[in-house]
Description:
alpha+beta, 5-stranded mixed sheet, 5 helices, 28% helix
Amino acid sequence: xxxxxxxxxxxxxxxxxxLALIAGLAMPPLDAPALADSGPVLVVSGALEGGAPVGFTxxxxxxxxMTAVSTETPWLSEAAVFEGPLLRDLxxxxxxxxxxxxxxxxxxxxxxxxxxxxxxHDVILAMRVNGKEMSIRDRGxxxxxxxxSDREELRRELYYSRSIWxxxxxxxxxxxxx
Length: 178
């Protein structure tokens, strides 16, 4: 009986290893494009006109219009060109009715940002850096970028702390939730 248990565990280990291999093949590598074009890469919910959450594919985000921002960041060794839709255009598209947004990353990290940032500055949801689509490893699929090099008043910890990457969701809220 001991022999059977050992063989059973070994057999089970092989099945688990095979399933892990199959699951690994189904997942994109970290340096692959962040998420497929076929599904939403971003969901916007909360205080919206119509109330229902809105999902956006990469193509739908691009259709909002792409803006290029050339800027230095604290996280890269040199200035880079970031491309993506303006945050204010996204908020207008969904009929955002709140004063704040909560940006949520893939790992569920959250940052609260006033909607006024989107209105007062050319804040973008960067999808590309230096012409290359951002992978999850490269802080994709979306990275909130401020035009730091163009606006000296933005070169402060307050705005750097709002620059969340790997964004998967934006929740529009009426009041700040801290």
